[in-house]
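Hey, quick one: can you model this chain's 3D structure?
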Amino acid sequence: MKAITYSSYGPPDVLVLSDVDAPTPAADEVLIRVHAAEATKADCEMRSFHFSVKWFWLPLRLVMGVRRPRRQILGGYFCGEVVEVGHSVDQLAVGDLVYGSSQLQLGAYGEYLALPANYTLTPKPTNMSPTEAAAVPLGGLNALHFMRRANIRPGETMLINGAGGSIGLHAVQIAKSMGARVTAVDSAVKRDFVLGMGADRFIDYRTRDFTQEGKTYDIIFDMVPSSSYRACMRCLNQGGRYLAGNPRLSVMLRCLVTNWLGNKMATFAFAKETMEELQTLTTMIEAGKIKPIVDKVFPMAEATKAHRRVETEQRIGAVVLAIREQPPTLCLAKVSSTNR
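Sure thing. Here's the predicted structure for all 340 residues.
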């Protein structure tokens, strides 16, 4: 099969389109022909091994490979078609169009992907194309997780810092569906798109600092690692909630102190990406509460361009790789060590 692989850490140019052995599903797995996969910021960070948040660098390096990547096919969020099921699988069937997460097994940058059937996989929304659906799981699952933890009450004010990314755009839509009045913060190029997702107000961080406006909020959802924790807490109303979506270690510790001593709540709990959450997102999408957020679609052969697009931070929505456009080359004779 065809797959986008990398054998060393580095810039986007380390990504190459390769021929590798296709995986064979075990008894409790399904084989998925991948139609589309999101090219995420996390993919770019794993490829380069340069992370905006530093505290997990060492443990992740030990897991992923000290000198070179152990798993040479990236891609954790995708949409595709079930083409084979293991004999003990009964919740999915051949022909099902599914979307979801491959977790740390990765592998969605390949034409075929074998995953345990109990992973976060569910039928894709009926009103989204495979390309649109592939852009949902990362942003949608994380946004839903944090919006639930925010305990939003109708009419409350919420600021989303980093609203133009995959997680931020889903958070805007979910928060609005829960009744919040949303102020979005990002670069000016994303203004119209973010407002189109439902935000009530937009702040261009390059020209205005929301922490200096003298305005306070009931909830702040912060996706920017370099934010000032102290300044954000000053922008919260009494009893307000601060949610750190991409926290530094110092922020994690300060969240604990805030919850212990203060009259405001701060959390950094990471999303579990559960099946129930993905099914909830499907229901919201089919009800029209969540719109597609695709910025641009690249063919497999242009994976380097896709990663560069993600890294510029000028994308407006999600960057997606079209995997199914490649001619099918399934061969089940061998199991590839890079995709297992």
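One thing worth noting: Residues 327-340 have pLDDT under 50 and may be disordered.
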